[in-house]
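Hey, can you fold this one?
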Amino acid sequence: MATLSYWRSGRSQPEHQTSLDALASLEEILNLPVGHLRSRLRPSRRPGPRGGRMSLADVMGGDAVRETLVMLGFDPDASEALVETSMQVTVEIDDEGRARSSVSRCVRKATRDDAHATPLILRTDGPGAQIPDFVARKGCSIGKTHMDVGAGVYGVELLLERPLHAGETAITEVEIQLPDDADPDPFFELYLTRRLSEAMLWIHFEEGHVPTHCQAYLDDPRHRDQQVRATMGTTSAHHVARNVGPGTLGIRWDW
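Sure. Predicted structure:
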């Protein structure tokens, strides 16, 4: 498991909820007292959610995210010119349990005149030899890119079709073709930088390789570590949250 190996080396530590859950299983395998490994974690570098707005660096945590934002031409601490008001993300999981692609459709609103660019960042639990491919499908194009393979942080600059005036909205659709050399992770989560009217996460599985159980989880100022059963279809699971963020929204599953 990449997260645990990087924790052992001192490079990072388990912080995703799924990685934290894995510590309990590892304690049992190693015949360690309950809580032995978790008690050795340093304070998280990912601040807990707070009201109002959070930057991508706040929500995602880590110096690599801040560096990626700078390399893309964005001030990590400045207010955003374009903010998401709603989000729909569809994820494809292959028959080995790997996330192969995601498609995100977002409504973005300009907070000031001449708003035309916004960052999009993908973060994985560990590095990989392959780099994800960001494809602008509708309403935008790809500008600058910055791929920090060692940190597992990949970012691009999304450019709208035209600059917006304050209060105007635009819709963007972006596909991320994910590396196929990563370890399968039994979860997928979204980072929300501010309150959204609606966020939807829809996970599609290969027929014949559908999990036995799926659980949605949400961590924001109004829902601290809330967990609910995700809505299951024949080959998919989804969760829709309204008036959600800033924080994280995800779905985890068991085979």
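Residues 17-29 form the longest helix (13 residues). Let me know if you want another pass with a different chain boundary.
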